[in-house]
Amino acid sequence: MSSDDEGGGEEYLFKIVIIGDSAVGKSNLLSRYARNEFNPHSKATIGVEFQTQSMEIDGKEVKAQIWDTAGQERFRAVTSAYYRGAVGALIVYDISRRTTFDSVGRWLDELKTHSDTTVARMLVGNKCDLESIRDVSVEEGKSLAESEGLFFMETSALDSTNVKKAFELVIREIYNNVSRKVLNSDTYKAELTVNRVITFIHKVKMRPSHFC
Ligand SMILES: Nc1nc2c(ncn2[C@@H]2O[C@H](COP(=O)(O)OP(=O)(O)O)[C@@H](O)[C@H]2O)c(=O)[nH]1
Ligand SMILES: [Mg+2]
């Protein structure tokens, strides 16, 4: 419980999932964001893992519970439990490996199949430090994001480019949609009063793009 509770503050908890092919840098994006760490040696994660990271928006504590796959993506076996309740998603590919970009459509389908609510989605072209061996252009990433209605950023978990921005943009978007919804609905107001923790999301409206 946050200290805010005594003062009647609201608390928000949003589940965000990171998906994409194996070795695109999902685990490193999360460790860079949550702990400012980078691991040059890819390690298979054991068990489903999430990390919780807080940020303050409008003076309120907003917590993101960010889930990382346990390496099941290698076997195309990410379970529905992984997606359950997610209100945000980062769909990651590696700009130096085209096959990982080709898989984005499949990941979007899977996300859609398993989510029961609208999800704030961001397409992430990771490893943008590898400019010399780039295999997917910025334009291609941008145009896919536009056609699918996704936010888009290129990131580098290695040199930290845009990592914080990418996560925070998704978190803010979820928050904005929730507060808009709350403002307009007595049901949501009641829910807020009773539970203090809400995990809802409404439609994504803006699509700012950021590049390396
Ligand atoms: N050059 C570069 N390598 C990265 C970056 N992010 C991750 N890697 C490397 O890519 C490999 C796979 O990363 P990992 O986070 O385990 O990928 P995951 O399977 O998607 O979780 C590791 O060797 C990382 O060190 C990045 O932004 N730039
Ligand atoms: Mg991983």
Concise structural overview:
This protein is of the alpha/beta class and 212 residues long. The chain is built from 7 helices and 8 strands.
Structure description:
The structure is a single chain. The chain has one domain (5-199): Rossmann fold. The chain is 34% helix and 23% strand. The protein has helices at 26-35, 80-83, 98-102, 104-114, 138-148, 163-183, 186-195; strands at residues 11-19, 49-57, 60-68, 88-94, 120-126, 151-154, 197-198, 209-210. Strands 1, 2, 3, 4, 5, 6, 7 and 8 form an eight-stranded mixed beta sheet that branches. Residues 1-8 and 194-207 have low confidence and may be disordered. The site of guanosine-5'-diphosphate has 17 residues, from helix 1.
Write the layout of secondary structure elements.
Blueprint: E1 11-19, H1 26-35, E2 49-57, E3 60-68, H2 80-83, E4 88-94, H3 98-102, H4 104-114, E5 120-126, H5 138-148, E6 151-154, H6 163-183, H7 186-195, E7 197-198, E8 209-210
Parallel strand pairs: 1-3, 1-4, 1-7, 4-5, 5-6, 6-8
Antiparallel strand pairs: 2-3
Bound molecules: guanosine-5'-diphosphate (GDP) and magnesium ion.
